[in-house]
Design goal:
The complex is a heterodimer of chains A (256) and B (301).
Chain A lengths: L1 H11 L2 H32 L2 H6 L2 H5 L3 H22 L2 H7 L3 H37 L10 H28 L2 H19 L4 H10 L1 H5 L14 H25 L3
Chain B lengths: L1 E10 L2 E11 L4 E5 L6 H8 L7 E6 L10 H4 E4 L11 H11 L5 H10 L14 H13 L5 E5 L7 H16 L3 E6 L2 H7 L2 E6 L2 E7 H7 L5 E5 L4 H7 L3 E4 L5 E4 L3 H11 L3 E6 L4 H9 L11
Parallel strand pairs in B: 3-7, 3-8, 5-6, 6-7
Antiparallel strand pairs in B: 1-2, 1-4, 8-9, 10-12, 10-13, 11-12
Helix pairs in contact in B: 3-4, 4-5
The chains are: A mainly alpha (256), B alpha/beta (301).
Chain lengths: 256, 301
Amino acid sequence: MSVVHSEWIKLRSLRSVVWTSATVVALMAGLGALFSLGKAHELAVSGTAADRAAFDPTAASLSGILLVQIAVGVLGVLVVTSEFASGSIRPSLAAVPVRGRLLAAKAVAVTAVALVIGWAGGLAAFLLGQRVIVGQGLAAASLGSGAVDRALFGAGLYLAVTALFGLAVGAVLRSTAGALTIVIVVMLLAPIFSAALPAAVANWMARWWPSMAGLRVATVVPDPAVLGPWAGFGVLAGFGALVLAGAFAVFGRRDV
Amino acid sequence: MIELRGLTKRFGDTTAVDDLTCTFRPGVVTGFLGPNGAGKTTTMLMTLGLQRPTAGRALLGGRHYRELPVPMREVGALLDARAVHHSRSGRNHLLALATSNGLPHRRVDEVLDQVGLTAVAGKAAGTYSLGMSQRLGIAGALLGDPPILLFDEPVNGLDPSGIAWARTLMRDLAAEGRTVVVSSHLMSEMEQTADHLVVIGKGRLIADTSLPDFLASQASAGVLVRAADAGFAGALRAAGAQVVAQGDGGLLVGGLDAYAVGKLALVSGTVLTELSPRRSSLEEVFMAMTSESVEFSGGAR
């Protein structure tokens, strides 16, 4: 527990972490309002009845998560790679020689930050987004319905796994640039480019690619073409657990 | 007490530390000497469990580093003073370290005071001079008030008053009964700080001895003689001495001590203008011992 506290001190003693977290929450809310406005306006002007039925006001207001996840992934990466870059990993591991304990403490601390960002940012984005959607004359979602609450809860979980994925990749690669590239490709670029791939591949990815499947947990309206919310999140969590296990194995053995 | 037993580290074809066996004892400052690349830092990293030995072991009070329940209470180490996150304040750096080992937070203020950094403790560590960084590193090592202390090149970057301070600190820590190991490639520093020397070159043990014994074992530098009579060199040779004429008219005499040379001068009626036993400095002894084991020698150019 003291090691977790120590990692928490490391996080909060960096002004960049504090500012980034606050900015990310604001960004998630702002983007939520903007995406909600775009989508709702399009539907109000030219949407068919089928389009309106498929509209997921909760998911629309949470879509800022696509960009926010990069900031959170970067945070996860930096929690490890900044120690390698500065060399402070040596005093850190001299203080906590049981390697797994240090990495686990970092994981707990960064998960806590990601959850708070996801929940606070998600709630702000949802509330703002729903106001915008009502303003466009569409039916909005409201808190208290099981699926909506689960989606908001899930937004935090999704970002937590993203942060852990960044931390794991950072622990394996030890370099900020390399780890960042992998996080951005896996979490953001692959889903974007999947649209340009042959339909069979694109459909497979929409169902099984970890970040695309995981995002289902932050949606409300079911889509038979893809996994359900928890099944999708399970794919992401399983993938994250696998990478994290690899990171613990490597981090525990390697010379520093 | 630190015991190294057959400690060996190979990186591919390179052997950084080669079957090193020695003991660092409590109550004295042990100078851990060697030219750059001799394996001093690698030895310390293995001792601290940060690098895995290829063979052998390093024991601290009979235990491996990783088995220590509260490591900072047992061992304090200064490795690279610059190894601090540059935007974190010195105080928060120490606070995180202290917290990880459950040390009381007042220790942070105590060690900051002890190393004289209280005034700048709230500033980002990246703004510190090298000397201030060294002091912060030393503060980190002292946090747990440990009986074993390892300092890797601690005076690097300190100004003369800082060096004097560090020297006093090391000696005081040893006088309290702690095991104090100070690595350096600066022999001149050790001459005034260390009681005991462990010298390595190319990863191998060259000497493990007290400072006076170390100097005595190599003190064959002879007697410097200046005589008014140029023929005195012949008289010395006749008495069985080896005489090397120095460029400035002096004679470096081996095989006779100052007393014998003085007596010979009296007998031969020669006026001596200089008669001084030459003790090799630690620097010279060290250079002589490690010249064959320097990792990067100049070579032919």
